[in-house]
Amino acid sequence: MTEEVINPLPIERGRPGAGLLAHVAVAKYADHLPLNRQSEIYAREGVELDRSTLADWIGRMAWLLRPLSEAIGDYARAGPSVHADDTPIPVQEPGRGSIRTGRLWVVVRDERTWGSANQPAAYYQYSPDRKGVHAQALLKPCRGFLHADAYGGFDKLYAPDPITGQANLIEVACWAHARREIFEAHASTKSPLAREALERIGALFAIEREINGQSAEHRLAVRQARSAPLLEELKDFLETCLTRISRKADLAEAIRYSLKLWTALTRFADDGRLEMTNNAAERAIRPLTLGRRNWTFLGSDTGGDRAAVFYTLIQTCKLNAINPEAYLADVIGRIADHPAKRIDELLPWNWRAPRAPADQAA
């Protein structure tokens, strides 16, 4: 019996067509060039490629590559510690001409900061709104620690299981968010108390820069010896500040934000695998915000699902220092003949760039 293969599309293996398809996808999702602009660029070179043709190619490629995207998603969510975030995406209502707001979510697994040899990955998923059920479905397979902001949709993931009494995920809050609240209060008031709070938080970040990339055991030892005392002093300082300023002050609100999340904010000090921030997810969101300025809105929810596939593959390539266009050109050219049960062989970190003809001859 022959092995099951992923259903093919009309892409000839080994032909330049795969390279063109990859170029269109990377130009759209990595270089932020909308399809109408790409069509205009090709027209200047005498090549007539309608936007509708390019859109059809994108749809076919997304369908073809979805198994790879889902395999990356399974891997990313299997990590002991993951990062999650989301960003709004304007979406056009088909037939109405109006615009509503969808969301693109990301889960990042990146263990390089604590010396792990496991490969980094970023998995994206689209939803038509920001209801908590979407975040919960995305992260349901995860076990361990979740670095995230204080979005209420994550709360059910931190709740104890009614049968086991154990939570699926343990919250790790982000000091970058907490610091930002205090920074904004300082920017508007120039409060000496806010400045001192920023300096104390800065000392914690300085320690993190020193131990970035070290083993989890070393990071834990340093944090216990140096960060934990600073955190205790910072908490005392913040609580004292609240007795000295108005409850309605911006700084008071910023301090209450940190104290409310204190357990989750200080969890990093008790485990060398954890991070002080959720910056890994925020970095993965940044390309989406840059692209949004150029393509303005998605044409439909289907466009959001397609975008999630390409962002997953392209950003995971970047995290692994792989040229996404070279990767996609090769994978698109041969995935149709590849056994579905061996899809992991085509994941970015398992992929090897094809050798040039001269190298093969040698």
**What's the number of extended β-strand segments?**
5
Outline type = globular
Radius of gyration: 23 Å
H and E order: HHHEEEHEHEHHHHHHHHH
Question: How would you portray this structure in words?
Answer:
By secondary structure, the chain is α/β, with parallel strands linked by helices. It has a domain at 175-277. The protein has helices spanning 16-29, 35-44, 51-76, 132-139, 155-158, 175-189, 192-211, 216-242, 250-260, 262-265, 279-295, 301-319, 324-334, 357-361; strands at 81-92, 99-109, 121-127, 144-147, 169-172. Helix 5 (155-158) links the parallel strand 4 and strand 5 (169-172). Helix 8 (216-242) packs across helix 9. The longest helix has 27 residues, at 216-242. It is globular and about 70 Å long. The two termini are 37 Å apart.
Based on the model shown, name its key terms:
362 residues, alpha/beta, five-stranded mixed beta sheet, 14 helices, 5 strands, globular, disordered N terminus, disordered C terminus
In short:
The chain is of the alpha/beta class and 362 residues long.
Write the layout of secondary structure elements.
Elements: H1 16-29, H2 35-44, H3 51-76, E1 81-92, E2 99-109, E3 121-127, H4 132-139, E4 144-147, H5 155-158, E5 169-172, H6 175-189, H7 192-211, H8 216-242, H9 250-260, H10 262-265, H11 279-295, H12 301-319, H13 324-334, H14 357-361
Parallel strand pairs: 1-4, 4-5
Antiparallel strand pairs: 1-2, 2-3
Helix pairs in contact: 1-13, 3-12, 6-7, 6-9, 7-8, 8-9, 12-13
